[in-house]
Amino acid sequence: MTRPADVLQQMLRSDSAKPRITTYDDTEGPTRGERIEISARVLSNWVSKAANALQDEFDIAPGSVVRLDLPPHWRTTYWALAAWSVGATVSLDDGDSDLVVTTDPDAAASVGSPAVLVTLAGLARGATVPVPPGVMDEARELSTHGDQFAAWEEPAGDDTALVAGRERTAYDAVVVPHEAHAERRHLTTTDTADFLATCLALWAADGSVVLSRGEAPADVLAERSRAEGASGP
Question: Does residue 233 fall inside a structural domain?
Answer without folding.
Answer: no
